[in-house]
Amino acid sequence: MKDISIKVKSLDSLEELKPYLKKDHGIAQKTISDVDSIVEEVRLKGDMALIRYTREFDGYDPGDMDMLSADSAEIEEAALRAEKNMPVLIDAIKASRKNIERYHRMQLESQKNSWMISSGPGKELGQRSIALQRVGLYIPGGRYVYPSTVLMTAIPAIIAGVDEIIICSPPGTDGKLNDILLYLCRDLGISEVYKIGGAQAVAAMAYGTGTIKRVDKIAGPGNIYVTLAKKAVYGLVGIDSLAGPSDITIIADDGAKADFIALDLVAQAEHDPLSRSILLAGSRKKAKEVVESIDKYLEEFGSDSRQKNNFEIAVSALNNNCNIFYSGDMDLLVKASNIIAPEHLEIMVDDYEYILKGIKNAGAIFIGDYTPVAVGDYIGGTNHVIPTGGNARFASSLSVNDFLKKSSICLYNRDALEKERKYIANMADFEGLYAHRDSVNKRFE
Q: What residues act catalytically?
């Protein structure tokens, strides 16, 4: 068993949080340069670059672009295998899909997406909501595939009404995609699927190649190469977010179950060695109980050889990025949480409504002892693509809105324009935009 060193600290002022909220993860300049080179080569050489990088990075030599596309027969065969070989997982996916669709349909229906109002005689103002035409989804792959990520990214786009959805995912060394990924593509009606991963996939979707038509927006998580590539092409296309290491903050009072808190902190830590887990406890006693529970659970977690890799990752993350604070002032803990602006916030307190009223910055909120983050990751229906790195201060979870754009509408008749043209002329004169002034005044000469 490896030693875990998690310090329990009294939180007396918000200034004490600053040393623990650094966002610089030390991305090497060479990594940035490598990504820039990949993106530029795909822009210039298109399909040829995709074939080369697939051979180099994925260990698969496609020969031509036909081998980097999953046709309808391949998708159907894989889907049938998945249904035969993984019925239990298929049942879970169906339940998850149902909940995610219900949530995102309500999300769409709860907003007035298109509207018009009368703003006076001869004037109408409004807004028109229009779905994006073509969206590219990046799905991590290779040895592992994440069906939850396919559901969380594709379903909001489908419900928003996106016309064309394509998927890019890295192939295995045999040139194949995971059966469960292709099952999902078939059931969601996504027929344009490419066996391309990494920064080169992002560049292909952004610029287009001889085979792949460019998209309007790219969504979906990936490694640092994918994230840097999304950053490089932003502006040419839209992106969902620049995701960093995952994080959780838990606000807990003395009534919360220490074992549950420990489980959720470790669960977040197993994502990545850079994952951050923070507890804001209502007392030193509760904080110490949680540390003891973490030690106890890790003994069990580390005893299973099949979980060795996850155990090593979790231990590293907990040692380097787990912070446990305590204070008897719950209002101070709420303020601390708002400064952290967590990706995931769990509220484990008796009077959760009081705490919830004070929360200003959180990507996704989970309330009570029996709503761990894993509920939102898989089955609850809310989206698990959530702003990381404190970006919940200004960003939101992925939603149908990410696949819609808004056009403002303005309609004046002659009388309405004549009534207000003096205001336009006065403002245009002040700003030195004289043709703007004339474009209105000369209509009445």
A: 343-344
